[in-house]
Specification:
55 residues; alpha+beta; globular; 2 helices; Alpha-Beta Plaits; 18% helix
Length: 55
């Protein structure tokens, strides 16, 4: 099950820099490509606002 970024994202970019497979894209809020996500949870563990959750 892939992770997803909720609307509490502040677009700080911390998650994108930590994703080992480059599944996170920048935007008004960041987004995770479910096809690339390997469910490692690294993004969720580094998110300072808790905006990332399992989908």
């Amino acid at each position: 099950m892939a992770y997803r970024i909720t609307d509490t994202c502040v677009a700080c970019g911390t998650c994108a820099g930590e994703c080992p497979v480059g599944a996170i894209s920048e935007g008004d809020i960041y987004s995770i490509d479910a096809d690339k996500c390997i469910d490692c949870g690294t993004c969720a563990s580094v998110c300072p606002t808790g905006a990332i959750e399992e989908a």
